[in-house]
Amino acid sequence: MNETDVIVVGAGPTGLMLACELALAGVRCRLLERRTEQPNITRAFAVHARTLELLDARDLAGDLLARGLRVHEVQPAPGATLDLRSLETRFPMILIVPQSGTEHVLEARARELGVEIVRGAEVTGIRQDARRVELDLADGRTESAAYVVGCDGAHSAVRRLIGVDFAGRQYETHILLADVRLTAPPGQALFATGNDAGVVIMVPFGDGWFRAIAWDRLREQIPLTVPLPMEEMRDAFHRIAGTDFGMSEQRWSSRFRSERRQARHYRVGRVFLAGDAAHVHSPLGGQGMNTGIQDALNLGWKLAAAVRGRAPAGLLDGYEGERHRVGAQVLALTDGFNRLVLGRSAVRRAAQAMAIRLILRFGPTRRILAGRLTGLGIAYPAATRGAHPWTGRRMPDLACEGGRLYELLRDGCFRLVDMTASGAVAEAVASAAPEVQVTRYAGPARTGRPAVILVRPDGYVAWASGGHPDLPARAAAEAARWSDPHPATNPTPGPRA
After folding, report:
1. Which residue(s) pair with 8 in the sheet?
2. SS3 content of the chain, % helix, strand, coil (to 5)
């Protein structure tokens, strides 16, 4: 029997990111993948601002930026343009990069960190008790670990074997996909349009190939197994966009039906779900891969703390508590987009488009919509009443002594940002919680910011204080609460399916 600390099932972006997080924290991790080879089919291609920030916090954003095309304006509805350049982030964009490129960057880092990737490993059985999880594989082998995470996609074997319901429904309209070359590509980087016949999108990969996407009501009942010739895609673009942009060559094509589903639970005992195994969305909005990568960043440091025996009580349950809520919000967002562009009622589509145009006219509502689209607006509820308003929020990338905060987060550890003038906070924290690094703020003074901020490894605020009569002692106590090597752990409880 092969034994390790954590087994991750599924070597897509979510599984690779999670394996990187665990290995960075010194956790023994094995990554099992059913596929024997990496497919060259690109499914996801949009990387949003918050995902880029989190990848930057692991020194991976630069590699991905070099592979992609930057898009600074999007149209969430016909006649409504959202300029992402106004966002307060280093990455005011959507990065268009093939999923294969994202996987290549993540796999290279995983191997660099010593992650063992086993291909051709199909999970057929799961057993768990209070201490371990055992996996049966199709070839007769058995794997054992303290924890298992299913990142094995929408048809997750792990989710099925632990008996978690995947609640939701399928969308009626089939989606046509093809990778094509164009002799007359559209002028804008990300082209999208629609009419009563359907919707089409053209996405450049930056290497001469384009992803053509069509929701064609004329062909919505054709069986998914029927081949998709280039002539059919050309016809769909002509009827919906008025042109096929000179489609001249097709290297791959497929039909599929998207779904709107979410796992009832993200945890059963020592087994967790993340990425498409936990939630699948309409592809409109490009949220799926981004949500999965952010699942991995949220779960990784928590599992590492549990493996090392340093998880505060309830920490592992906090993964579902935080990410299930986010998954539901993303499902509502993408379902709204799906109804906006593919709804049967032209009157309703027009009313919804008018509402979005109105939203974009006002700064506060425009920022809320931009935050939801880009992930920058994601926040987690505070665990205690009376917590500082920054608790659970995305931490901005502040200038600090020694570099930007997100550069300093690359070791995967907690950081306490001290905005006070004295060094008393640093001294107190160093004594009480030596694993928590203290960073002095080095940027311009601004009102409304806390005096001290404890930042989680995934770039969210664990605790903050605007001031306290004994601030150093309070900061030291909070830092110790997150890094005490002997707290009450929570290894096995969790919802049962």
Report:
1. 31, 149
2. 35, 25, 40
